[in-house]
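Q: My labmate handed me this sequence with no annotations at all. I'd like to see what the chain might look like in three dimensions before we decide whether it's worth expressing. Could you predict it?
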Amino acid sequence: MFIAPYDTPAASRHLRLIWSCLGMGREEIEACLSQIPPGSNLLIDQADLDWLRVGATRHNLLCRTDAGIERLRPDGSVAETMALYEHCLPSQIADHPARSVVALDIVLSENTEDAWEDAETLIAGGLPSQIVASALIGTPQEIALRLNDYRKLGLYDVILTAPSHRAPYRKVSEILLPLLRQQAIPADTHARVAGISNGPFEWHGAAL
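A: Here is what I predict for the chain of 208 residues:
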């Protein structure tokens, strides 16, 4: 899933992942930019818009406003506004507007046990229970399946809210995004990759 600027989900059917840079300093944002591929999506503060339009011209920028999440054109104008659902499971989202986005934390590891140990450490450190309950926790394959539940609802934009010191930028780009690209293949192809099926889901590993 490398994203053509402003490609609409209706055309691509791909999930679009958006890295949240809200509240980050410039050094943190620059560290993020150094680890993500061109064409990535960044949710930024209004105060950072001008310098990122110059310094991150190959990325897609979004801003949060009172109206929701605004996707911006290269000139800074608003291309579209999406309703925001923060830290919600698919079962908690009903009758959402056609253009909506969900914000979720992510804890990604090579195996399920390590991911949940990391999550427990975050809980002990004070991560709110609402965030943990909806967080994407597990291996890339497990997280891809979780994300597909949102895609089936018609939610194609997902904000990843993990702070920069633990955000799995490279793993998402190198492992998770290819799995999500495979999920966008029409169901009648029965394509399979890394345990993911586009028919009834089949997954070999720990229970989700």
